[in-house]
Each structure stands twice: as C-alpha cells, then as structure tokens.
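Running co-folding for thiamine diphosphate.
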Amino acid sequence: MLRDDPKLIEKAVHTIQMLAVDGVEKANSGHPGTPMALAAITLEIWLRHLRYDPLDPSWPDRDRFVLSAGHASMLLYSMLHLSGFDLPMSELKSFRQWGSKTPGHPESHMTPGVEVTTGPLGQGIANAVGMAASIKMLGARFNDAAPLSTGRVFGICSDGDVMEGISAEAGSLAGHLGLDNLIFFYDDNSITIDGKTELAFSEDVGKRYEAYGWFVQHIDGHDHGQIREALDRAVANTGKPSMIVARTHIGIGSPKQDTSKAHGEPLGADAIKITKQKLGWPEETFHVPDDVRALFAERADEGRAAHDAWRMVLQGFQTRGDSLPALYAQLMSRAVPDNLFEELLKVVPTKDAATRVQSGIIEQRAAALVPSLVGGSADLNPSTKTFIEGSPAVTRGNFAGRNIHFGIREHAMGAFVNGMASSEGFIPFGSTFLVFSDYMRPSIRLAALSQVQSIFVYTHDSVYLGEDGPTHQPVEHFWALRVIPNLDFVRPCDALECAAAWTHALRRKHGPTALALSRQKLANLPRPAGFDPTSMLRGAYTIAEADGAPTLVIIATGSEVEVAVGAKKLLDAEGERVRVVSAPCLSQFLREDADYRDSVLPRGVPRVSVEIGVSAPWYSVVGDRGLVIGHDDFGASAPDKDLAKHFGFVPEAVATKIRAWRGQTRA
Ligand SMILES: Cc1ncc(C[n+]2csc(CCOP(=O)(O)OP(=O)(O)O)c2C)c(N)n1
C-alpha cells in the first residue's frame, strides 16, 4: 500500500497544504492557515477510513466528510481534486471566482463531493449529527436483511464551531442518541480571528463533550501515529460519538504559524517562498507530484471496489420476495405518489378546527403514503400535532421509528433536519412555534441555499395564539420567511389548503417549505361553484368570487381569509363586487405564468391585503395605491377573540377601513 510509505504521506500533506496556499494566493483571498494545519488529519481520514467513490459522489452507502470549519474550503477542494472527484485543477485555480465550482465556502449544490454547505460556524457539525442519525435510521430498516446503510460521518470542527451554541445543542443530542457513526476532530489551535482563543474561551472542550456522552481523545494533530491510533479507536468504539481533540498549529511551517494572520488572508509571496523552501517544495504553483497522484488513485480504486461490493449486496437484496426492496426503492427516491394530492383531499376533515389540527390529520395520511417522511418537534408534540402515529420514537437503541424527539433545541433541529435532507432516504421535518423560526433561521436559510427538501412545520402562527402573549406571537415572521430566496412559506386558511400545503412540501424536491398553522379554530370555507382544487397549488386563487366583474380584490392568508370573506359580505351588500383571493404561498404564485396571475389579480382592479403581521412588504402585492391592513406592532396577552377585536381583524373593522379608503381613493 502506497499509504504505508511515510515519506509519501509527508509529501501528500505538503501537496494539500501548498494547493490550499496557492489557491488562496491566486484568489487573493481566503484562509490558508487552517488547511495547512488540518492537512495531516484530513489525509489520514481520507486515506485510511473514509469510504468514497469519486465517480459516484452520492453512492448511498458512502461515508460522509463534513468540513464544519467551512472557511478552510481549499482543504476540501484540494482533497476532492486529488481524490479524483469531478473537480479539475482549473477549478482550484479559479477558487472564489465567478462561475467556478470552488466558492469561498463549500456549497453542496455547487461542488461534487461536498456533502453540506458550511461556513456559518456550528452548522456543519450539527448537520453531521442529522446525517449520522439518518444513516442509522435507514440501517435500522434494512441492515438486518442486508448491510445497505453502514456509513460513518467524519468531520472537522474548529474553535468557532464549538463556541457556537448550535453545536452544543447538536452535541448533546448526538450523545443522547449514542451516534457512534459520528467521528469529529476538533481543531484545537488556540487561534481565532481576533487573536488567541483565551480572549474569550477558557472551558475544557473535551470535558464538555465527555459530559454530552461522547468518547473523547486528545492528540497532537500533526503526529500521524497519534492520528491513526485515535481514528482506529474512534471507529472501533461503540455506543458514543467521538470527538478527537487535536492540538494543531495554524499556518504550520509558514512564517505566520500560530498567529491569527494565518487565518484569513493570503500568506503573501515572501511567506510562500520561505515556506516552500523550508519544505523543500518547488516554487511552481499548484504542484502535484506523480506519486502523490498515484497514492490517491490507489485509494479511489479501493473506494470503487467497496462500491462494487455494495452493489452486489444491493442486487442480492433486490431479489428478496418480501416488501423490503420496494420500500428501499421508495425511500431512496424519496417517492411521493403521483396521486398524493387526490389522496390527501380524501381525508380532509369537514369539521372546523385549527389548521394545526387539520394539518396533523392530513400528515398522518401523507406519512402512510410517503415512507420517507420522518421528523419531530422541539418538545412541542401536543401543540404542533406532528407525531407520526403508529411509529415509535427514535432512541439510542432503536432507530427504526419515524419520530424524533429533538428536545428543546430548535437551532440544532433545523440543522439536523438539513443533515437528514442532505443524506439519503428521508424527507425530514422539524416543528415548533412560528415565533421560534427565529431560532432556526440560519438553518432555514442554508436549506434554501443548498436546495434541500427540509420541511419546517410552524404552528401558533399569529397573535391569535392568544394568552401566551407577545413573546410567543409572530408578527414579522411571515415576511421574514417569505424574503428568504428558495424558501416556500405556506400559510393555509383551512383544512383543504392544509392538504395542498403538505402536497406542495412533499413534492418540492429542491428547496425547503415552511408551513404556518394556526393554534385557534378556523372555519372550513366554502369554495365557489366549479372550484378546481389544483388552483390551491398555484399559490393564490379566488376563494370567494365577486358577483360580476370585481370592483375590488381582497388578498388574505391563513386565519385572515375568513375575516376577508366576512368583510366581502358586508361590502357586497353596499354595492361593491368583492373578490377574495386566498394566497397561501406567494412565492409559488409568483412562479405562475402572467396569464394566471392576471386572472387572479386582474390589472386595474384595486387591491387590499389582510394579514395580521407587518404591512410594508404587502405593498409589493397591492401596489402603492392599494390598501394594506396589517399589524405593525407586537401582540398582547389576551384571548384571541379580544385580540381580533382590539387589533381590528374582524369583518366589520376591515370593511370600515376599506370603506374609508374607497372614499379617499374615489375622491
Ligand atoms: C456563525 C459565524 N460567525 C462568524 C463567522 C466568521 N468567522 C469565520 S472563521 C471565524 C473564527 C475562526 O476561528 P476558528 O474557528 O478557530 O478557525 P481557525 O482560525 O482555526 O481557522 C469567524 C468568527 C462565521 N463564519 N460563522
């Protein structure tokens, strides 16, 4: 084995270090010091443990590598290039440039072999927890029949990662679940951007992870023998996730070693010259010795062989006479039946209820039709109604269930769900109150950026949650979520729209969906004669038609649709011809063709919006001559009926506002 040659290993370390240094230098921006420090650890992981096939980066039973310290991206790009992934040298040379596959921080949808998008510190390690759980959940379904899901998640986190709170939540959950297929190195280099970590950080990280229930080891991160032994022990260890605390030197071998200067700026021509001379490395940039290429080629061959062996296992498995092969196929394609919407419509409750209740009933049917659907809440099952009936919760001893108790860890829940969505087999959801989407916003944004199918179920979606008061009452959240690119925010008004919302979320493969559901009871609204239910999937549609050509269109969402319909009745009686448009998903509506949009919101007809949240963005829908009935303040602690009255979200008050505005606009 070429990897048993210490001289060649040393050469490979230098190759990785210098590729990173050269890439950063050419881009004239980036982070050279950390790739230099982590080259030895990363090489040992990839050459001795990580199971990958560069020709098929998404081979389901691969091991995953997560660089949580995403700023060290040139380390990952160098590894992917050397390992034979579709990342040619030209990409390393265009690091951080327009159109390259080597963006400043790793982006999973951009670069083959990048498992998750990292950069916001703490997210990657929390994603990795979800990935490790996902692999175990898949394994619990099939491994007794055939070892189809046996992957491990290797990763590297930095000081910043372990300082961020999200990693503490995720670490605690990983320890609780005993995720022994999760193996991380903590790059303990005592340096962050401002200087030494001691400026702000003095706890014993190893002891903290021990307390979370991890298997913790301490090593010198430049000593190959120590790295190997620690890795072997971690891989063999069962029942606990592993944290290997590795002392390293940022910018090792360069004049900037052990200083924060090595963190986030190019080394500079002089420092590079000195460093290369010291290593006996040629001055030529992006130099890769032939024997180093051969070393990685040997490893890629092993990966391909492992993949081939797995394919044989899969083929044998597929000849089974029972239902497992079909289930496996369904999971791996995250299959959603073509007739999902029709099937969900069949179970739409006729009884009026809160949309969280209606959603819960519909979700049960969705879960029966879509075996990929799994998830949980952040300790709010009785409130969010998302527990999948008939299936147990995942525990450290049993990963066969479909329900996950995330505990009160919203940040980690978001990242965990994204980790699952970035892994294989599942369409994951996480649920909590809408106001706490703030606690998950970084993960929601990353789900949207990295185009993964995460579903976020948010209940208690407005001030109408009532007595809990303004701390729990979202007002800016509707728009705060709507403005995230590639996130579809869906706020259904009744049971029928809940069926559309779940259909939308389950069909939407390349981006997350957030559902906003009411705590309070809402009426199931009648639809106009000849109503086509598929119009609900178009984001906005006419829910109550005007008698003749409309003189006015009221656009409302969620609980305010009922109020708008009430106001319409009052205004119609006075001679208006009001159309009410329900707009559960504005982003979907904007994707519809102009003819459809014009048919719903006819040009030239005055528009009013009604939604109990911040008003300013609604002018983009109603136009600057339109009327926005919103709520630009926090809520209050009181019963929902009183809040509706005081805040003016009852039909009479809405009609009064519209009348006054009509008077003004006509004058
Ligand atoms: C959530 C978040 N906050 C801030 C940053 C900006 N940032 C990038 S790296 C870093 C700290 C670097 O220290 P460390 O994590 O120890 O990395 P090293 O210096 O060892 O590369 C910071 C604050 C970030 N990427 N993510």
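Result summary
The first strand starts at residue 64 and ends at 67.
The CA atoms of residues 545 and 579 lie 5 Å apart.
Job closed.
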